[in-house]
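User: Hi! I'm working on a homework problem where we have to compare a predicted structure to a textbook description. Could you give me the structure for the chain below?
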Amino acid sequence: MIEKLERLSRADSARWYMSTPENPMVIGALLLFRTGLTLAALEDMVRSKLISRRRFRQHVVGSGHRFGRPSWRDDVTFDIRDHVRRLDPLEAPMANAELVRLVSDRMSTPLPPDRSPWSFELVSRIAPAGSALLVRIHHCIADGRALVSLFQDLASGLGKERVVAVPLARASSADRKGHLLSRLAGLLRFLTFSRDRGGFSRPALDGRKRVAWSTSIPMEAVKSIARANEDHVAEVLLAGVAGALDRYFRKHEGAPRFVRALLPVAASVSSEGLGNHYASIFVRLPIAAAGPRARLESIARDMAAVRRGGMVRLMSAVMKLIGAATPALERWAVRWGARRASLVVSSLAGPTAAACLEGTEVNTIVVWAPAAASVGISLTFFGYAGTLNLGVLADTAVVEDPDELVTCFQDAFDELRGGALPGGQ
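Assistant: Happy to help. Predicted structure tokens:
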């Protein structure tokens, strides 16, 4: 009997071939619970709500020849114990510093290539009370928005109405319609981008990842800045990142005039299940601008131009084209694009109401989106239950202590809140 394989979509294939030993394309999420979640309850949830989805019982195999996309193959030896396990063998609650080290180690560890590329790893006791769940899922299975939808299917306590989670940065209707000439102009700008030489140094990545995350920021504080200046939430966050980088670079290397970031943006707002339905655009972050308001105004102008030019739709088409190319050509294209950005900045709005997994309330969610090729820094904002958390994922060859970036962002956001609202400087 001939085994029937299912080819990855072009967009999903692109994310599969982006993976390298130093930068695996794995999305990480840390869920912190108010009380203890047990391994038995976690296994029951995965059995009843997750592995009924075929994708979570399949692994990826190559095409077997130079051309062609990889395929999904059913894992005939699937064992839930390969994917769901407890990480803390000791009975004493794990302190926060230990949790950071453990999560950093797991985010540095590749998912086994011969299994379905995901894992749920439980820390059953963290100090002073509660538990934690580290979820790692390869980007070829789904993008961040699809994984938020999956989380809502697994969770309870969200009320009768389903919360439609959308990226904090998404394409406008003008972008989706984009005029042909505008798209051609955008393509020309993209092809003529020079290397981003003003940002983080570019040593070879070593594959050792470190994570950090912020204290929770009230979402209303971010929205109030956006409303006061008629900006988008994503633009406020980018202005905060620019201010954070100004602080960081002045301490370490001297602040450049600007750096370029890759910003994932939803190509559509409709729910399409698992898979990838977004594109990454290049955004200029004005490091040397004269204050927080000037940074916000500059970013807002640039983002408006991106939306008018149909750049999201253009980059979505480019990504699908790359996904249909040979692996060698795709990896070359990914390396070419990565040299034109210093970091990845992602933002996603999750459920607005608190949720429970197997009766255990989720207090905080931190997300780490991956970076590709030579990009060694990823900043991810995730909104949950009225708060916003920043997760930083850094390769130690580029940034040894990502906590510094978290602190810089929190200081820059406080300055932005004081300087970007009416009456500020």
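For your comparison, note the following. Residues 279 and 316 are 5 Å apart (CA to CA). Confidence is low (pLDDT under 50) at residues 159-168, 170-178. Good luck with the assignment!
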